[in-house]
Specification:
With about 200 residues, this protein is an all-beta fold. About 0% of the residues lie in helices and about 40% in strands.
Length: about 200
């Protein structure tokens, strides 16, 4: 399951249940209604809400879909059939990021009408929700990579050993502090306070 919280109204919640059904609450979870509607249902569907009130979901292998605020119809964006496992969206819903199960990061700067795909494969990526152009990723070649321009260009800031990639390394971002990222591997936990440019091992 995944819970999306409206960034402008914390009483507005969406739960994505197993099987792809979406439930919405506007009273902090006291009551719920289904909003799946015409959204394809076939497995897990990550979901996010923009500050403008638009909702985005990634139903199984059907890319990214959008429900605009005030409407009850889901519409497919131009991503296609990617199997999305993580979604991020900026405040007005224009910039969308989708990470798929094959390790590809896709992004749109026009509310999903057109998409670009980063020419790399990743174990994991994380976006600073406070500064969404800042992205940290662990590539399948074990490089720690940082982008400061929303995924167009990348800089290598480190490299993991072969033994550190099992289980798959993961990048996490602090929700309330700019520039704070964590990297977890099978060997260590590391922290960066400068958007992934330098890392410190935690004991």
């Amino acid at each position: 399951k995944e819970i999306a919280i409206d960034p402008t109204n914390p009483t507005h919640l969406i739960i994505s249940a197993y099987g792809g059904t979406l439930f919405e609450s506007e009273d902090s979870g006291a009551t719920w209604r289904t909003i799946t509607g015409n959204l394809p249902r076939n497995g897990y569907a990550p979901v996010v809400i923009s500050e403008s009130g638009d909702m985005f979901a990634g139903p199984s292998d059907r890319g990214v879909w959008r429900m605009s605020k005030g409407f009850q119809i889901w519409e497919p964006t131009g991503l296609g059939k990617a199997t999305v496992v993580e979604l991020w969206v900026n405040t007005n819903g224009e910039r969308i990021y989708a990470f798929d199960e094959s390790g590809k990061l896709h992004y749109s700067v026009d509310s999903g009408t057109s998409w670009s795909t980063v020419d790399r494969h990743f174990y994991s990526v994380a976006l600073d929700r406070l500064v969404m152009e800042r992205i940290v990723g662990i590539s399948d070649s074990r490089d720690i990579l940082v982008s400061n321009d929303g995924g167009r260009n990348w800089t290598k800031t480190g490299e993991l050993s072969q033994s550190a990639t099992y289980p798959n390394p993961q990048v996490h971002v602090a929700l309330d502090q700019k520039g704070l990222f964590y990297l977890t591997t099978g060997l260590a936990i590391m922290r960066s306070t400068d958007y992934g440019l330098s890392w410190q091992a935690l004991s």
